[in-house]
Amino acid sequence: MRPLTGELLLEAWERGSVETASNRPLALLAVARAGAGRDDLAGISLADRDVELLRLRRITFGDALRGAVPCGSCAARLEFQISVASIIDRLEGLRPAGEARWSVGGVRFTTRPATTRDLVEIASARDPRRRLLELCTSVENGDPASALGACEDRAVEQFNRLNEGAETRFTLPCPACGAADQVDLDIGRFFWTEVRHRALNLLREVHELARSCGWTERAILEMPAVRRACYLEMARA
Q: H-helix or E-strand containing 81?
């Protein structure tokens, strides 16, 4: 896996800019993993995908993940900092080994982890949650619709257990009002926001150095970040 720096950062931004929110994480991974097809990445579980995104984020921007959310009770700004490595350790312990097989009243079911392909499939569904459950649950000896409807609570329980590793949640206490907020970290959306921000900043640096020094985009992008920053400082002096 290659970190998203220089030309790769811009390529990831370009690919992600034309994708839907569901497919953007795959665009980032496809750039970082040379030769990886998006169709193959779309078929891995959301838990595996998120661990890969976290690893990519760590080698690209570092281990410290910083952000801020408004308090749900008083709207105060709640800042947080989390170690990416600690999130990876937690999620790896929750990732499912495979499918879950279970039975109710003689009817046998198989539940599999959800994938990005499933998220794309349910985007226009009338009831996305129900449709996702149907996609991830198969019935061996019965009518799928009626069998699932008769034991939906059990199906949801199995689905949630298999996909527990696809969710990152933590509690933030609010120093202003004392409330404890549950924060859901969508690493795909968070990482994409960082990539977009860094890519636009990099383009501004390229523009500034090209205008000041006459260098090509390729030459500027191939510079180590520390050297590029030094040239920018001199150009602005």
A: strand 77-83
- Using left for φ > 0, alpha for ψ between -120 and 50, and beta otherwise, residue 187 falls in alpha
Cα–Cα distance list, 139 to 144, 145, 179 (Å): 5, 9, 44
N-term to C-term CA, the chain: 38
Q: How far is CA 221 from the centre of its chain?
A: 26
CB 46 within 8 A of CB 116: yes
Tens of pLDDT along the chain (237 residues)?
999 999 999 999 999 999 999 999 999 999 999 878 888 899 999 999 999 999 999 999 999 999 898 988 898 898 989 999 999 998 888 777 788 888 887 788 899 999 999 999 999 889 999 899 989 998 887 676 777 777 888 889 999 988 988 888 888 889 888 888 888 889 999 999 999 999 999 999 999 999 999 999 999 999 999 999 999 999 998
Inter-residue contact 191 to 28 (CB < 8 Å): yes
Q: Which 3 state secondary structure label does DSSP give 138?
A: strand
All structural domains of the chain with their residue ranges: 1-43+186-237, 97-162
Pairing label, strands 64-70, 169-173: unpaired
